[in-house]
Amino acid sequence: MSLVAEAIAEVDGIDAAALPEALLRSTRPCVLRGLAAQWPMVRVANTSAQDAVAYLKGFARDTAVTVSVAPPQASGRVSYRDDLLGFDFHQEKAPLPMVLDRLLQHVADPAPPTIYVGSTTIDTWLPGFREHNDLGFGALQPLASIWIGNRTRVPAHQDFPDNIACVVAGRRRFTVFPPEQLQNLYIGPLEYTPAGQPVSLVDFAAPDFACYPKFAEALRHAQVAELGPGDAVLIPSMWWHHIEALDPFNVLVNYWWRQSPAWMDTPMNALMLAIMSVRDLPPEQREIWREVFRHYVFDADAHTAAHIPEAARGMLAPIDETRMRELRARLLQRLNR
């Protein structure tokens, strides 16, 4: 993809061992150059892919991981077939050491098959790795995952959690868009997705502007950064991001955390319920429900239920874990009628 885009802002002076709260609550993306540069994994990866593989094997359990594999003609893109009824890759199960060896076999291959291990929990498959390669999140307990592959391209998508992604081997290009670019990114199916999140149908390497004309407007709002080993990028909740791995061997470690309690449901469930129950109402009724949602959800404050005695407010009271469980049980009961 050839574009002239704004560079993602860079922030200096961040202590990797004690990430500041202001950074962890940021609502704007930023590049953190060298944040993970002192990790042993990064130093080893800067020597060679072979050394990086040997280092990872020192922690890897001989347990199968999920591997996405595509033929060379996919050019690394992990997405749909043209008819959107299937994917342009298939998944296999193999022990991580075996996958690493397979990647090394294709390091010098000019047109390798796509080999991609995505979102694999580090503590499960690489126990001990984080004792030497980690960031300081304080009281937060983020989910730490590792992503391993060759020259892969992950279509633009959103994640509900906030995210810090650390490049530890190879180079990656991140292209991010503000959340409001939803209508210009041509998002595919919500429930049938390549990896759990709805993705843009635009091939960033060869955008079809005849088919996706509004993508030109999205590009006006794009921010781009190329990261090398040791660099990191903060991607706030719900920012669209497209990720390209640029070298024959690439490893990324990322951390996801939420600004809300872990027991809260994901808003995607609310979206699906709203599509089921609100979207296809007559226009006049939809407008009524727009006002109901505004009143009880988007503009809710201390005055919304102030006229109801505190003990009788039910779901209009502040939600805690106990009330969440009660509401979930009630909702499941209603859905299963």
TrEMBL record:
- Name the source organism: Luteimonas cucumeris
Domain JmjC positions: 115-272
PANTHER family registered for this protein in UniProt: HYPOXIA-INDUCIBLE FACTOR 1 ALPHA INHIBITOR-RELATED, HYPOXIA-INDUCIBLE FACTOR 1-ALPHA INHIBITOR
Provide the protein name: Cupin-like domain-containing protein
PROSITE patterns linked to this entry:
JMJC
